[in-house]
Amino acid sequence: MAFPLLSVIGFLPLLGAIALAGVPREQANAVRWVALVVMLVTFGISLGLYPLFEPALPGMQLSERVAWISS
Question: The whole model's pTM is what?
Answer without folding.
Answer: 0.77
